[in-house]
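Re: the 290-residue chain
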Amino acid sequence: SVEREWKGPFYFIQGADPQFGLMKAWSTGDCDNGGDEWGQEIRLTEQAVQAINKLNPKPKFFVLCGDLIHAMPGTPWRKEQTKDLQRVLKAVDGEIPLVFVSGNHDVGNIPTPETIAEFQQTWGDDYFSFWVGGVLFLVLNSQFLFDASRCPALKQAQDQWLDQQLSVARRRACRHAIVFQHIPLFLQSIDEEDDYFNLTTSVRKEMADKFARAGVKAVFSGHYHRNAGGTYQNLDMVVSSAIGCQLGRDSHGLRVVVVTAENIVHRYYSLDELSEKGIDDDLLDLMKEK
């Protein structure tokens, strides 16, 4: 197809964790419940959409790396949060495709066939690939990497599919391969301790090796509500802070990702910066044909 051919540099926008309901839950110290208000998140996501719509040239797509809403499957406010987020996202320019990645709040910490089916009906496939301008993009369901005890067959299906996809990348049949998943492989380094915000050491190393062997250039994640990341071999692990609740010192924001013939160049912008100033000239220059 035409999108399998490299036609020059382009860019996309990555966001993560709008997570409607977390700000109230976090402020009241009750993250397992709470979350019965999400006006702040609505306003922030509206600001993100307005900033994206103003950009010129337009991004090739806008990817949201999981935790779309805060209410876990089967808990109160889930339907309302979902409806409100879908309403806000309807305002995204019709020429900018939306790409959704499933997070732990979207499918549950321990997903089941039922929670995965609910996600698919609401947001689309929980894992899939797509091509833009000669670049292969892979969207993964990282909950299968976290705990697939209640849906082993689904995890196995993703594993087999991923190996097929990565064989395309390994044969260098694409200009670059880029992965989106909610939970980062790691936050700073491949050897860091296991914690809530990364994948366990054994899974992390297995996945990182698989990606590195296939020549994957970058993995983009959210989940941490802070900016972080590091490199492993030639793999860039990029952890982007949230559109919604901040757990560190970063601002509510979005990441601009420029794909050139050789590199993946990215920069995090606060929503205010992106709204007021747009993309920096040095990034725009990368997209002008050399």
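The longest strand covers residues 253-259.
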